[in-house]
Amino acid sequence: MGRKACLAIGISDAPPLDYLPGAVNGAKAMDAWAKKAGYETKLLIDSKKPVGVEDVKKAMQKLLPQGTKTDRLILYFAGHGLARDAAEDLWLLSQWHEEQEAVAVGGLKRKLERFGIEQIAIISDACRSLPADADTADLTSDNVLGRGPYDPNLPLIDMLKASSKFRAAYMIPGATLDDDRCIFTGVIEEALWGHKPSAFSDHMVGNQRRITSGSLAKYLRSEVPVKAAFYKVELRPDIISGFLDPDDVYVTEPLAGAPAPKAWPAPAPPGAMGPDGGAPAGGKRGWSTVGQAAKAAPPDAAPATAPTPGAIILNDLGFAGSVSNWVPGVESSTRARPRMPASIAPRAPTPPPPESPPPETPEEERTRIEREASICDEKARGFLDSYRAENWPTHFETGSGFSLTGAKAVRGLIGQPEIVERDDDSPEWWRIRDPHKFELQRPLPMLVELDDGRWLGTTAIPKFIQTFTIDETGAVSVIYRPIGMAGAEAKAEEAVANLRAGMFRGGEAYDYALELRDGKHQDPMLGALAAYLYDSQGDVESIRQIAYFFANANQPIPFDVAMLARIKAERGNGVVVASIPAVAKRAPRTESEANSQWAYDATPAVEGVVAGTFPWLRQGWQLVDDGEPQLMPEGLATIRQHLTSAPFTTLTPEGGTLLGDLIFGDDR
């Protein structure tokens, strides 16, 4: 293998969230291994100064200079993270709360497709918890990089994520800050240094043992849950192994200069979380206290002590519950307070900080997760009941239309010659027609202006009626209901209710995507949601299969599917036609796929009409500046800043006007 590069990012200090020294330790460990393994490396940690998006951008530009192609890039992150919408993962940098932005993992992966990289390994030791409040739900997601110097290619992807969707990852504090260790990174570190024989592949080259993409994946799936159980927590990693033989090797034995195995903290008695939760809240963190006098106890008070060796305090590498419980003025959150380094001498007396609750025990953590899941399930059931109780139209003579719940529409814009007009049967039922042939003949982008000035961005599709549910954030539900197919919308209602409640999952990503695909012809939104699931796994071929089946059924391809499938397109006669490449047959990934041959069988090249000219979901707007030029109008990315926080495309008054000018011009 030729040029290899590694960027290791460790974010320990991200106020107001828990202080995580183990994140910096993990990044240092990954950087040290990569150097020994022949990678060009860059280390970004926030021990002395905050790390922001611009720092990540500069580091990546140095590692990926123009004119230089890279065989493999390892992108490592340890710190706080979250998951939202349809399988969108975000990484939180040092000043995320102040700047209200986060790194969009999927968007960054998409950008890297234009930087001449053959293989990308993304190692993420961070939570994938749900947003804790309105601020975190509305974070701006940043792709970090701009347009790269090369034509897009589809690199092979290894995705090694510490936790399954909507679950926490964990750090184990040791006796000192330098001993703090993230469980997932610790397991990877031991494997990559060659300390674990079971991480090596059974297939040897000569007398040399190797750790490959496949053998590392197998090892992590088995060992991470075992190590987590040792500390009485549950951690099931999300692992995708995409590198191919013979260029799938991480380690060839022997690896010169391997350090001795690092000892793990000993487990405490069941339920014990350390003697006192660490030093007083307000103890030294990282960059946020550099250059400041650390708060400490009065001179006559006993000095702060580190936890007794063997005592365990578990910190979430996420923030489920920690933002809403954060007390201003207290540097650490309610989970586990940082230890004060011994080098910091006591200072002048300071008022005692507000009392913090004790750290959460493993049993309490499991109970909380179950309770949160139960609340989300209850919300989803409530949303599902509300959809079934709504008064929505089942038929329009024009063959297309929409209705709204929770808001009133002022007008719909679709361009000429099609017309959007209020239906006589209900003030919030609107029909869409062709003035010459009456029934709508083709899919068309549409904007709906609400009476409060906001705009819904959507696509009108022949033979479908859209139903919108609107709240203060915008469109929280968009369901396409097929005309003349009563009851066909049940699966779509359930999926959208889960998305709205923050429970967009159904087992593993591949199986849930398979379940959604099975109903995509009854509601094309299901095809779009399945495409985002596949995209989160780096699986473009399955997205192209979705596009093929829409085209083969003479149905328009949802815009988000066409965009995520990276397919060429041409404009003409008022429609966009996409050229879908052939997809080769592959082996089924799961038992459910094995029972559905169409999910992994080969599909031929075909052309199909695309439904719309902009994303249906908010998260898709992060990708519009890297899409096929003929698929979307130039300048679409400038509209992104005018989106609301709703999961489905909703725009501010200014944004709706700008998008209307962009896609319709004078045809309004």
From the structure above, extract its key features.
single chain, 668 residues, alpha/beta, six-stranded mixed sheet, five-stranded mixed sheet, 15 helices, globular
What do these coordinates show?
The protein has 668 residues and is an alpha/beta fold. It is 25% helix and 21% strand. The chain is built from 15 helices and 28 strands. It has a 6-stranded mixed beta sheet, sandwiched between helices. Helix 8 (362-389) crosses helix 9 (490-501). It starts with a strand and ends with a helix.
Total DSSP E strands: 28
* Largest β sheet strand count, sense and barrel closure: 6 strands, mixed
Average the pLDDT over all residues and give the rounded result: 83
Oligomer, anyone? Answer: single chain
Between the first and last Cα atoms, what is the distance in angstroms? 56 Å
Radius of gyration (Å): 26 Å
Summing up helix and strand content along with how strands pair, one would put the structural category as alpha/beta
Can you give me a brief rundown of this structure?
With 668 residues, the protein is an alpha/beta fold. The chain contains 15 helices and 28 strands.
Blueprint (SSEs and pairs):
Blueprint: E1 4-10, H1 21-36, E2 40-45, H2 53-63, E3 70-79, E4 81-84, E5 88-91, H3 96-99, E6 101-104, H4 105-111, E7 117-126, H5 134-137, E8 140-142, E9 156-161, E10 170-172, E11 181-182, H6 183-192, E12 210-212, H7 213-230, E13 238-240, E14 249-252, E15 315-316, H8 362-389, E16 400-405, E17 409-413, E18 419-422, E19 429-433, E20 444-450, E21 455-460, E22 464-471, E23 474-482, H9 490-501, H10 509-517, H11 524-536, H12 540-552, E24 557-558, H13 559-564, E25 568-572, E26 575-580, H14 591-594, E27 606-611, E28 650-651, H15 653-664
Parallel strand pairs: 1-2, 1-3, 3-7, 6-8, 7-9, 16-22, 24-27
Antiparallel strand pairs: 4-5, 5-6, 9-13, 10-11, 10-15, 12-14, 16-19, 17-20, 18-19, 20-21, 21-28, 22-23, 25-26, 26-27
